[in-house]
């Protein structure tokens, strides 16, 4: 399902989003709460062009709650409202309608001043692949009303799906490309499952994940695999070995099967088995390299 983004795809996505936005009162921007920076489209401000925007930090159930709150404060400081949600279970979803209503108060005032009867608010969901757009739509409108997929390039008549009495949601979400600013962003996207495993070396992604865990969440990592503490984040090979031995990822001859360990670690991390994790903080500066040209 993940899209490989080339300049042509980006231009098309940009065009499609611009088209959608012409009819929209409020934009719902879906980010992954574990990587709010890397899962944000690099030109979201330009794309939404001053429309009221609500950020949803989705998969909040998998993210570190304290860091999610820091992100919300961070966005707020920039004048953008953000809410944590878990589209899968529905936690936080009820707050979306009222938040959209708050953001469009001036629009309502304008309608009233013109003597118009306020109509329902028109919203669209935007976000990178796998961030949870379909899941959220199903949550908001109920499965029966929701459209089947969000395949780009399939043109059909746009429809509005009712969310309560005040909100109407465009039936297809806008699919945006993630940041490609550097290798680290790519690894973070891969760790969370936002980009296909085939695009990067599985072992590299797992090594990155293990080093991150050993540095930032050492207790959670040690507890999960019954590792002796303290861990050495600089010796990733040793971590692979230790986990492999504990979990019986052994090939003939008693050697640890590194591929198996990589697969195990990523699967468990993504499923939240190591507890709630956030890979990037609001306060840390973004690393920008020469590659930062493709956004
Ligand atoms: P998309 O439309 O933006 O591409 O994303 P989609 O809704 O298909 O969701 C991508 C994956 O993320 C799905 O899992 C979905 O269940 C999961 N997901 C969405 N929202 C949440 C959330 O708030 N919390 C958690 N924990 N997961 C969420 P999948 O791997 O495709 O399938 P499965 O693992 O559910 O079988």
From TrEMBL:
Xref: SUPFAM superfamilies: P-loop containing nucleoside triphosphate hydrolases
GO cellular component, one term: cytoplasm
InterPro entries: G_CP_dom, GTP-bd, GTP-bd_ortho_bundle_sf, GTP-bd_ribosome_bgen, GTPase_MTG1, P-loop_NTPase
Keywords: Cytoplasm, GTP-binding, Hydrolase, Nucleotide-binding, Ribosome biogenesis, RNA-binding
Family annotation (CDD domains): YlqF (cd01856)
Principal place of residence: cytoplasm
Pfam families found in the cross-reference section: MMR_HSR1 (PF01926)
Localization per Swiss-Prot or TrEMBL: Cytoplasm
Keyword tRNA processing set for record: no
UniProt: GTP binding residues: 58-61, 130-135, 174
Residue span(s) of domain CP-type G: 14-178
GO molecular function annotation: GTP binding; GTPase activity; RNA binding
Gene Ontology BP, a term: translation
NCBIfam families per the UniProt record, alphabetical: GTPase_YlqF
Function text: Essential protein that is required for a late step of 50S ribosomal subunit assembly. Has GTPase activity that is stimulated by interaction with the immature 50S ribosome subunit. Binds to the 23S rRNA. Required for the association of ribosomal proteins rplP and rpmA with the large subunit. Required for a late step of 50S ribosomal subunit assembly. Has GTPase activity.
Similarity section: Belongs to the TRAFAC class YlqF/YawG GTPase family. MTG1 subfamily.
Assembly with partners or alone: Interacts with ctc. Interacts with the immature 50S ribosome subunit. 2 molecules of rbgA bind to one 50S subunit.
Name under which the protein is recorded: Ribosome biogenesis GTPase A
Organism: Shouchella lonarensis
